[in-house]
Every structure is written in C-alpha cells, then in structure tokens.
Known about the structure:
By secondary structure, this protein is of the alpha/beta class. It has two domains: 1-124, Rossmann fold (3-Layer(aba) Sandwich); 125-208, Rossmann fold (3-Layer(aba) Sandwich), CATH 3.40.50. The chain contains seven helices and eight strands. The chain has a four-stranded parallel beta sheet with strand order 2-1-3-4, with helices on both faces. Strands 5-6 form a two-stranded antiparallel ribbon. The chain has a two-stranded parallel sheet with strand order 7-8. Strand 1, helix 1 (16-27) and strand 2 (31-35) form a beta-alpha-beta unit. Helix 6 crosses helix 7 (194-206). The chain is globular. It starts with 6 loop residues before the first strand and ends with a helix. 23% of the residues are buried. Residues 1-205 form the AMP-dependent synthetase/ligase domain.
Amino acid sequence: GLQAEELVGIMAERSPEMVIGILAILKAGGVYVPIDPDYPKERIHYMLEDSNVSILLLQHHLLEGTDYQSHTVFLDDPSSYGAEASNLKLNVMPNQLAYVIYTSGTTGNPKGTLIEHKNVVRLLFNNKNVFDFNASDTWTLFHSFCFDFSVWEMYGALLYGGELLIIPKQIAKNPERYLQLLKSEAVTIFNQTPSYFYQLMQEERADP
C-alpha cells in the first residue's frame, strides 16, 4: 500500500473515474499530483520527473502521451476495482499533504505548490462562510483539476453532500450548450471567470 504522503500522479480527462481516482489516493493516505492530459508532452514529462511519483493513475488512451516507466493503474479498467472495497483504517491528519498543484511555468519551469488537508477544509468550512451550501445543491465541475478552482467545485459538492455535475470539454467550450445544461440540470452553484460569464449572459439574452 501507499505510505503516508506518498505522491501519486493522476492524468485523466474530466470524468467520474477522475474523481474516483482522486478520492482513492486521498483515502489511502497519499498525495495526488494532477496532470492535465492536454499539456504538452514535455511538460507532462517534467512534472512526472520533478514530482517523482511512485504510481500513475490514468486512462488507457492517454498512455501514449507519457513516457512514464514505473507502476501504472488504469482508471477505465474494471479489474482496477476488483480488490477489497471497505474503508481503510487510516488516521489522516489535518497537516498532512492532500495534493500538489504545479504553477503555469510562464516564468520558467513549473513549480509544485503543496496543499494540506486542512487548507481544503478551511476553504469550505470556516466562521466567515456567507454561503448556505447544503445537500440539495448541484455543483458543476467545469475547470481543469490542475486549476485550484476545481478544488472548490469538487469538494464543495462532496463535503456538503450535494450533486457534482462533471462538464465535458466539448460542452465547456460551447457557452450555448453549457447554458442549456445549467438549466436542464437545475444547477444551483457554478463558478466562472468574468469573461465566460459574460458569454453566458449574452446567450441568455439571445435566447431567454
């Protein structure tokens, strides 16, 4: 099994398997290192080498995008889910690492930022929370899991017991289809950059 705070890479497209992989790493006491499969091959190679992950979780069709030579687990392989399914008896402490997100690398090589479990909990549960999140909410997972905003989107839904709607890339790139999905799924919480939000407003005005 994993050692406490052992780094595990995960390279996956936005999907239920991606979320399952992240939770599996955390529940095993590990630290996930998200890698966007759309990154250039050189950046993927650098992140895997720099983080020195012991295991890489990925989907089969993404294997050719990496030259990783160590242990791999395929998230889309049914045999990956055939082991004991009960919860592990681990005591993960608040100050243990949860994930490592790499910077954009615009001023040189990307650098890993270390985030602890308590940082995630504090983001969503604190005495200054002005939102009334609850289990009836539907959240969207729109952003790449290499972008910190995805932490708010994913864990907001999971920690409050709400529904998480994973937005496929082809819909994310189409404001008209995304707006239709927001309405049809009765989404109550979604997060956007101002520029994309303005596009949604334009779509709503064009077809109210």
